[in-house]
Structures are given as C-alpha cells and as structure tokens.
Amino acid sequence: MITLRLIQQPAVPLEAECLTPDRLVELTNDQIRAAVLYHGKRQVRVDEFFQVDGELSDAIELHGDLSRVRHLGRQMSRGTVTIRGDAGMHLGAQMSGGKIEVFGNAGDWLGGEMRGGRVHIHGRAGQQVGAAYRGSLVGMRGGSIFVDGAVGIETGMRMKRGLIVAGGRASDFVGLQMKGGTILLRQGAEIRTGAWMQRGTIISLVDLQLMPTFAYSGTYNPTFANVLAGRLAKLGTELPFDVSEGGYDRYCGDRAVPGKGEVLIWKPT
Amino acid sequence: MQKSRFLPRGRKDRTMVLVDIRETKSVKAADIFLQVRPGKDFELLTILRAMIKDQPISDAEVAETGVSIEALQDLVARMKAAKFGAMFFGMGLSMTRGKHMNSAALLTLAAEMNAFTKFVAMPMRGHGNVTGADVIMRWQTGYPFGISFNRGYPRYNPGEFSTVDVLVRGDTDCVFVIGADPGATMPQPAIDHLARVPTIVLDPHVTHTSRLAKVHITTAPAGISAPGTAYRMDEIPLPLRPALKSSYPTDEEVTRRIKEAIQAKPDWMVEGPQRLETQV
Amino acid sequence: MDLKVIDHATCTFCGCVCDDIQLHADDTRIHKAKGACVLGKAWFLNHTTERNCPAALIDGKEATVEEAIQVAADLLYEADMPLVYGMSNTTCEAQRECVAMADLLGGLLDSHTSL
Amino acid sequence: MLRITGGSVYDPANSINGEVRDLYIADGKFVDKESCDSGRVIDATGMIIFPGGVDVHTHVAGGSINFARAMTPEDHRRTQAFIRTKTRRSGLGGMAPTTFATGYLYAGMGYTTVNEAAVPVLSARHTHEELSDIPIVDKSSLVLMANNEIFLDLLEEGETERAKQVIAWYLWAAKAYGIKAVNPGGVAAWKYGDNASQLTEPVSGYKNVTPGNIVAQLAQIIDELGIPHPIHLHCNNLGAPGNVSTTLETMKHLEGRRAHFAHLQYHAYGGDDWGTMRSASVELAEYFNAHPNMTTDAGAVLFGDTVTITADGPWQHLLYKLTGRKWGNLDVENETGCGIVPYTYKPSNLVNAVQWATGLELLLLIDDPWRVFMSTDHPNGACFWRYPEILQLLMSADFRKECMACLPANIKNRITLPEIDREYTLYELATIISAGPARALGLKQKGNLGVGADADVVIYNRNVNIAEMFGHPRYVIKSGEIVIEEGDIRETPDGREYIIKPSFDPGTDDFLQPLFEDRYCMSFENYPVEMERIENPHLQDCKPQQ
Fold it and tell me: D46 by DSSP, 3-state: which?
C-alpha cells in the first residue's frame, strides 16, 4: 500500500491527476516523491505537499484535508484509492475501474463522465455527481457512485448507464437530461428532478416535487426493483420491493423532450 | 418603430409579449403581459416545449406557474403563426434559481420553434462590452469565460474557474480587476477574499473594489475618452468615437504595460513539449 | 460657447451599444447626447476630463502610474493562481491585452458572464 | 538570406517537375543566385520541395466559426493543446481551432496562405480582428453577396450597373478580396423559413430575381470589376440527393464566364432521396472537364467528428433535424445567415460513405490539376489539418481499396471510386495544394518558387507513408523565415492580409445611405471597416476589364 499524508495545506488548488493506482503502481517511492503536481500555475513535487510511504502498489491511501486537491484517481482503471478526510473536485473523473472510498466529503464532479468502477463517499458530495462536463452530451456511462450524505445540483446530468445512490437529500436537477441508468434518492430531492430526461430511472423513497411535464402512469412493483434490491443488499443498502410493504407510483416524462424516462416514488402501505 | 417591407405598419404588425414576475414599466409597451410566479421560469418554458409538440399538460400543473392554460395556448398559437419570432432574455432569467438551465430552456424552446416557423433568441447583455469579452475569449482560447491557463493552455469549467466560485472558495491569490466593480456586486464571502489577497483595479473611478485593493490605476473611460471597439449584444463590432480627451491612460495601454513588465521577468514555465496530444 | 459635435458616436453603457448618438462636447465634458436613452444620457453626461481621481493608488496612497504598474506586475508574477476578471466596461483592445496577460500569467480568466 | 540546396523541386508554376534545383531567398522573396551570397544553408539533398500550400476555401475566422467554438467545448477538451511560451500564445486545435492554433496547424503542414471563404460585410470588422490573430500564414477573405437585400432589390429592378457599383462599394467596405455566393436567394428566403431550390424560380419576396440570374449577374459584375478571383460559388441545394442537376444547370448559367465552384463534392449527388442517393461525379466531371472557364475545390469528406458551418441556413436546420444534435443559427440582418451543427461522418452510414467517395472521385476524375483544388470546406467535410490523409488517398489506389473495404456492401453502383486507378504524382499534388489555388485566387506571388515570388516553401523528408510525410514537413519557410523545423514551431511572424479596392462611382455612398438607414440597425458611417484595422494590408491589383 502507498500512503500519502498531506503535510501542507495548498494555498491554491493542487492538481494531482498523477495520484492514481495505474500510475503509482509503476513508481518507486523516490519516483512518487518526484512526480509532478500543479500548485496553481507552478509545477511542484509530490513530496512538497505529501509525506509518501510505500511504493509499487495500486492501493493508495491519502490522509488529511484534501478538499483543495483535485483530479485524484482521475481515469483510474484498477486498484483502490482510500481517502481519510475530504476530497476535492473531479475525484474519480473518467475512471473506468477500481474503487474509491472517502471517509469524508467529496467535491464537485465526483465521478464525472466515469465509465466503470465504484465510488463510495461516506459524507456529502458536491455538484454534478457523475455528470457530463460542459458541452459534452454524455455523462456517466457505467459503474456506481454511493454517497451517504447529500448531493448537489445536476446529479447524474446526461448519464447514460450506471447507478448513483444518494443517501442524503439531493439538490435541484437530479437526472437532468438523463439518457439511461438509475438514480436512487433515499431522502428525496429539491425541485426539477428528472427535468428533460430522455430515458433512465429515478427512484425516490420519499415523496418528490415533480416537473409539470411528468405524467402519472400507475402504481406497481417493477421486476427490476427486486433485482436492484439484491444488488444493493450486497453493498449494504436496502431497497423496498415487496408488494406487502407498498408500491411505486410511476411517472413518465419529460414530455417536453418528449422523453421516455421514469420516476418511481415509493408509497409504503 | 421601424417599418419594413414585410412589416409595413411597423409596430402594428408586431406582437410583443412580456413575461415577468411583476408589472414593470415595460408592460405598457407590451401587447400581452404574462405574470409568472417567481422561480417558475424553467417550469413555464418546459411546459411550452411540451405544448408546442402537442403533449398533454393538465391545467393544475400549468396553474402553478401563475399563468393560465388559456394564456399559454394563445401564446403557442401566436408563436407558431408568427413569421419571424424573437425571444430576448435577461438576468431575471439567467441569475435566478436554475441559472444557466433557465437560459438553456429558452434557447431550446427557440430552437424547437424552428420546426414551425423562423425563431431566434438573444441574451440581453447588461454591461457595455461584455459581448466583446465573450467573443474575444472564444477566438483566442476556444471558451467564452471561466477559463484557467494554469497548465499552459486554456481549460474551461464554469463552477470551477468562474469568479464567484473561485473567490468564495479562496482559490486565487491575486486578482486583477478591469471594467468591473465586484466589490459592490458580489456576495460578501467573495468580497472578503478580494480584500484578503492583493487586488489590482483599473477603473475610471475609485470604486468599492479600489478601496479594498492593493493597487488602483485610474484609466480613461471607454467610449467617452478612450477609443477602440465594442461588440453589440448581437456580436456586431462597432467603433467608439470618444468626445473627450483624457489625461489618464487607457485600459489597453496600462494592461499592455503590466503585461510587458511581466514578460521582462524570467519565465517560470518548465521546458516541456510544444504541444500535448491529451489534455488534463 | 462653441461645442464640438461628434456624430454616430457609440454608447457603451449597456449591451445594446447604440451607435447613432450625437454628442456635443467642450474640452471638459459632454453637454448633450442626442439620440441616447435615459441611461445613455446619464452615462455620457456624467464624465468629465477633470482629474478627480489620483493617477494611481498603492495601499491607498497616491502613486505614479509607472510605480503602480511595477507593483501590479510583481504581484501578478509572484502569485500562484492569479485571476484576471471583469472586462465588461472596457474596449476590445483592452480585452485582448487582458486575455494575452492571463495566458502569459498562467492564471484564471473570467468575465461578468459567469456571474 | 537563406539557400536551400540539393532538393527535388516541384514547382508547377514554372513547370519544374522534381528536378534538383537550388533556391535562393533574400528579403522574403526568391532571388537569383547572385543576390544571395550569405546566410544559412539548408542542405535538402534527397528531400522534396513544394511551394507553400494555399487553401482556396476554408472557414477560420469570424462570427460563424466563433459560434462553433462556443458550441463545442467538449471537442476543445479532447484535442491537442499548444502550450504558451514567453512569446507564443497558447491554443487549442480540434474541429474549430482557436486563431493562434489555426496558424500553428496550417503552417505545421506546410500551408502558408489561407482564404476565409465566408464573411458577412456587417461583421467583417470581427473577421479581420480574428484574422490578425492567426499567425504565420497570409490571409484573404471573401464577402457574402448573393443574399444581400439591397443587391437583390437592384436586380429585381434591373439596375445592373448600379448593382455593380454597390458590389464594389461593399467589397471595399468589407476590406475583402473577393465575392462568395452561398445558396443564391436561399439564405434570403430562409429568413422566412423558405429555401430556393429551383434556379429559374423567383426567390421568396421577389418577382424577377431567381438564383440563376443572381449568379449570372454576380459573375458578370466580378469580371467587369476585374476582381482577381472569380465568383466563388456555393450552389443551391447543397447536400441534397439529386442536386447534380442544379449544379449542372448553374454551370450552364455561367458558361463563358470565370467561376469557382466551392466544395463540389456537396453538389455532386444523384438519386431522388436519401435511400437512392449516389455519386454523380462522373457526369459532373465530364461536363467540368469540357469547360475550361471553371475551377473547383473538392470539399472532400473524411470519416470522423467535425462541426459543420455554412451560411446555408436551411440546409443546417435539416441536418439538425436529421442528427438531433446541437444546432446554432445566426441571422445577419439584410445580408446572410449561418447555421452550425456538430456532425460525425461514419463509414457505416451509406450517405456518408457516398460523400467520402464522391470527394475523392472528383479529385481523380477531373483531369486538369490546375482546375481542381484540395479542400474539405474546413470544418465541414473534415478539419483542414487532416488534408495529408486525403493526399495519401489520392496517391495510392491500393490504400483507397483498403479504405473501401470498410464501406457498407450496398454502396455498389452508387460510387465509381473502385474503378478508378489514377494515382496522383507529386507534381500534380503540388498543383492542387499550391500552384493551382494560388492561380485561381489571382495571387501570382504564391504557389510559385520562381524568382520574385514570395519565399513560402515546404521541405519534406521522403517517406513512403504519404500522410506522415505531408503531415510533418522537415522545414516550413514563410516569407524566407523558417517557421517550422522538424515538427517544432520556431517563429510565429504575423502574416499579410490581401485586399482589393475595386473602383466605384463616388456617388455610391449617397445612393446607399438612405437605403442602408432604412434597413440596417447600425450607422452607415460605422459600417465600413477602417483600413487601420487591417494588420499588414497588402493591396492587390483590381483593374476593370475592357
């Protein structure tokens, strides 16, 4: 395992896209220390900001308040990144595999345009979780993001596949222009959930304020809720699906597009 | 109002619809006024997007926006019957909850209206030459605003590199302000950061920002005593014809001299390849 | 008094950038802005060539432009993440210098648009 | 001073075909041996020497490409980035490169002159500002005229002499180099949601004006004014199946007059609809070959992502409906408009495959390389920095066969490419990328390695991989200065801008002013581009023909 401890709080954002399992697995301790980060406009060595222990491993653990450290785990395809503290923007952006776990909060664009792998944030996450970057037509394409706490606006914007689970309340525009995949909201969301969605599923376990362009289309327990619940159970989280417990109100839309997405709101009996 | 070949009666041949959250003075100039509930712009525009495509919308849902279904049906009919529709929007739309998505809703509606008739949309730009800044940043960097050059080439990410966010998070350690007074207009945490770091202000007046700045330089006001160019909000550049002569230097001159003074110092960039095939 | 007349002058107060204003000015101020709206009139008539402001201020104390330029250059050069912001109420020529400076500085660049 | 010795020189303008010649350069021009007695010597033994490339039709500056930049941030992020140095600005390549990168990329593949092919007069000031930020290359621009309301009104009234004066006035107001006609009458009609598809039918809003007489009158006026470059024509019905009939009819309207047909590939389709669309390059090339009054550029398509930009608004709205992707539209009051749609050409798509083949077929079936030029109508068919890929396709029939293997099976009988064996020689390539377009533009000092011409020259290492060879010249020299050396940018001098001043009746101002004030929303006096705004202006001759 490689352990990186933040020894100095950066004065301006520190861009650390080189701190990924794919890269560090090939580097000796000396090479990791000498790897280049960007502190604002200046190139700095990793050891100017981090105490580095270990080498040649695809398991990375970071300690400290890393809320100003951006692009950690960017494009990673393997291994683990464990952060004991807060993480900055673009954590796990464009990752395709491996696992990221944060015992703290994460910043904006968590798992932005990710293609695979798993992310678990024990605290909150910022805006645009699993979203598309500006101008890009497709956000997250695969993998899963679990956030135990709240998530910011535009969560899952333009996502095409994959799963986002928000344990806390979500802000506005969840699943904006969503094209596929699943978003589970355990504590519901603010307004404009599912706005302009084309396809995909948003499930809320509490009541939601919906856009006027969604239409009610029945109450039922979809088969996939059962399947999803099984998958989630393995990850230590529950999804109700038993008919005896209740049912899902199904709304489809967004008719402005017009889209064939669905929003399922759990109604316990 | 201008009479034209296709609208020979001028104003009489035109229909103006005003949408606002309150009755403003502009209501008098409008043919139709639609009063939308504050914060319901996005919903209203999204309903219109559905309505132009004949998607069913229930009255109750429409009522929440503060506008009746009849009024919207009338509006849609007028829009579709128009020869040439134009939508103008301002900061009431782009600066309220939903922000850029409110503008996106209006622009998408305008684009979709072209399935029926000619329609265009244009933002009403508040500040003098903000369009010029937009246009120039686009041709020189590829992006209209919210840019970082810290990696030696332009990158774009509003929210990450946009000023209010940068200041509130404290992501910058020196600020150069020109043709703006953020000290008067930005949220307090942003202003606090401006005061915390060295700030440099170029302005014809000693502004709120100047008062909390490290350096203020007085410059000649554009179009009054400084010559040059400004872009109209439809991206047409117009020459300025200053009527006065100023004893203060122009923004252009001062900025160039600062740039040249920086250029005279040793470069901090580490020697590397001339181009990157893959960006960060 | 003989006023100088400037035809087809351009108003940069708002984004409409009207270019059909007729200005009547003497050496110190504009007295008439024919064709300008209420906002435009206020904009044109409120400026004078009188030196009401110090040439430059450093830490609130009067300084020469040259001194201020040097201090500004030093501060921007030393910074790790300088920000160039604004560019609304100025000319394209100044804006081009701003973009060039931000590029050189390796800093952030933003306008009013992002507000 | 600079000497280049021992290289194999391909200089079609002087009929030099691969012979070993020494070149001498002083003060930015080629000189004779005696006038160059010192300075650096480049030993080009074994290397290939071409005149600097000339792009007759590209979109690199102005409102529309700048709109495209705004619409495609996702592309800027995935493309190559040029890092700034102390003296050189940073830039981004891609589908719609930034101005600085445009200069680096063109020079990087040996191009030293580019012609921006679509400028509305109203925003010409903007275009010139962007052009001045494109380093290294020399530039010129064409002004859009075939949908100008005042001009069309004069045609309606039969006032052709007045129309000529007005055109000359507009050209000078725009500080342009020539005249472009886009979808004559169709863009004007688009302002009312219509198009103009029949050459002999009146344009919406007019009784007498037809697309056919717009092009014929413009060509006549351009000849009478002595504008160096002929009418630069984007025909009606761009991109539509069966449009070859429109194109041929347009060519007939222009018989006996000079004319340049832009991006001919987009106007060379047979069939009745998307299902039956086929290449009509054979019949088009046959007619073209028999009519020496015309030149053309290919408008070739390459598979991949790009962004399409054209003043052809109605076509772009159709493309938006076909793709369901982003769409931008600009209207330029009284003059023209523009549509912008990002697009991906796919080999598996039958229509795209036909387009790909058609572009190559035209380049191969038109037998005179002095009359057909390299272009992709950047960025419409592909980005200009992909030209070397097309050169490889032209030089190798085997490589073409390899590429054709990826096309859909049902493309048979829709294209002729499999039956064409022609392979371009280096001499022919030098003609279509440099000497030919320079001649068509009336730029005698370009595309020419003779004494007195501008010392714009490219030196290539021989390489069996043609795309590699043309994509990575060993040296690029612009006005005698080495700007690219072994793939690295050395210098980024400012280029010139070529403009013309056709003569017009001094009373034209008085005639135009009231019409202008009735129509436009800017002041007449603020409309013409001031001469001081042009960086390094170079006035080319423009003498009326007798």
Answer: coil
Residue C34 domain-assigned (yes or no):
yes
| Span A105-153, pLDDT tens digits | 999 999 999 999 999 999 999 999 999 999 899 999 999 999 999 999 9
For range D192-196, the mean pLDDT: 73
Domain ranges of chain A: 105-268
pLDDT of residue A235: 77
* DSSP state letters, A78-146: SSEEEEES-B-TTTTTT--SSEEEESS---TTTTTT--S-EEEESS---SSTTPPPTT-S----SSEEE
Flag if A42 and C80 touch (Cβ within 8 Å): yes
Structural domain contains residue D319: yes
Which segments within B94-185 are labelled E, that is strand? 118-123, 147-148, 155-156, 174-178
Distance between start and end Cα atoms, chain B: 52
Split at pLDDT 50, 70, 90, the class of D192 is low
Q: Are B140 and D89 in contact (CB under 8 A)?
A: yes
What is the overall mean pLDDT for chain D? 94
Sequence letter at residue B163: T
Q: Which of B148, B54, A41, D318 is nearest to C108 (CA)?
A: B148
Identify the domain containing residue C60 by its residue range.
56-114
D240/D266 Cα distance (integer angstroms)? 8
Q: What is the CATH number of the domain that holds D477?
A: 3.20.20
Determine, yes or no, domain membership for D158. Answer: yes
CB within 8 Å of chain D, chain C residues 5-44: 7-8, 10, 19-20
Q: Is residue C102 part of a domain?
A: yes
How big is the CA angle at D285 (ends D283 and D289), to the nearest 5 degrees?
A: 125
* Position C50 in a domain: no
C-alpha gyration radius of chain C: 18
Tell me, yes or no, whether C62 and C26 share the same domain: no
Number of structural domains in chain C: 2
**Tokens, residue D194:** 């219509």
Domain assignment present for residue C51? The answer is no
What subunits make at least 3 CB pairs under 8 angstroms with C? A, B, D
CA distance A174 to A197: 10
Nearest C-alpha in A relative to C102: A41
pLDDT computed for residue B275 by the predictor = 92
D449-492 confidence digits (pLDDT tens): 999 999 999 999 999 999 999 999 999 999 999 999 998 999 99
CA distance, residue C96 to nearest chain A CA (Å)? 21
C61/C39 same-domain check: no
Q: Please name the chains neighbouring B, where neighbouring means 3+ C-beta pairs under 8 angstroms.
A: A, C, D
What was the pLDDT predicted at D412?
87
Domains of chain B: 10-123 (3.40.228.10), 130-263 (3.40.50.740)
Claim to verify: residue C63 and residue C110 sit in the same structural domain: yes
d(CA B53, nearest CA chain C) in Å: 32
C106 interaction partners in chain B (CB closer than 8 Å):
149-152, 268-269
Max CA pair span of chain C: 55
Question: Tokens 């619809």 appear where?
Answer: B17
Domain total of chain D: 1
**Boundaries of domain holding D259:** 49-498
Percentage helix, strand, coil for chain A under 3-state DSSP, each rounded to 5: 10, 30, 60
Residue pointed to by tokens 């000649």: B220
The model's confidence at residue C114, banded by pLDDT at 50, 70 and 90, is low
Mean per-residue pLDDT over chain B, rounded: 93
pLDDT in tens, D490-538: 999 999 999 999 999 999 999 999 999 988 889 999 999 999 999 999 9
Residues 40-59 of B with CB under 8 A from C: none
Same domain, yes or no: C60 and C99: yes
Closest CA to B101 of A187, A211, D40: A211
Model's pTM, two decimal places? 0.95
